[in-house]
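Is this the right way to post structure tokens for a design question? Let me know if I should format differently. Anyway, here goes:
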């Protein structure tokens, strides 16, 4: 690229951060929601992580979990990126389900590699 690509031209600095504790909190939260009758999507996980007090978060008691507001310093995009990375790595997975209205919804659950992170 000879320092001409958009990645090399970007002046923003990257910050490295260990997010293992956050990953563990997501896993614990995902496992707890898997046993409930209700299922939850990636945007809901982000809302809980960032401390949203919307009706779905509070009605389900997710504002009382360890995950709630743990990622208040993260932007929504950073939070979504972290969750997507965890899905790609198999730590979390998206379970696709067809609704009664014939739409597809992706619900989050603990993935096959979650035990490795929790160890």
């Amino acid at each position: 690229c000879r320092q001409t690509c958009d990645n090399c031209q970007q002046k923003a600095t990257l910050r490295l951060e260990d997010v293992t504790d956050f990953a563990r909190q997501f896993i614990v939260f995902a496992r707890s929601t898997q046993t409930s009758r209700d299922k939850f999507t990636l945007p809901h996980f982000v809302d809980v992580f960032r401390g949203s007090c919307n009706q779905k978060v509070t009605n389900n008691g997710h504002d009382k979990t360890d995950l709630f507001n743990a990622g208040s310093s993260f932007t929504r995009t950073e939070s979504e990126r972290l969750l997507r990375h965890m899905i790609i790595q198999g730590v979390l997975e998206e379970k696709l389900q067809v609704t009664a209205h014939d739409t597809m919804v992706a619900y989050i659950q603990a993935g096959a590699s979650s035990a490795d992170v929790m160890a």
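Format looks fine. Someone answered above. Worth noting: Residues 20-34 form the longest helix (15 residues). The chain is about 45% helix and 10% strand.
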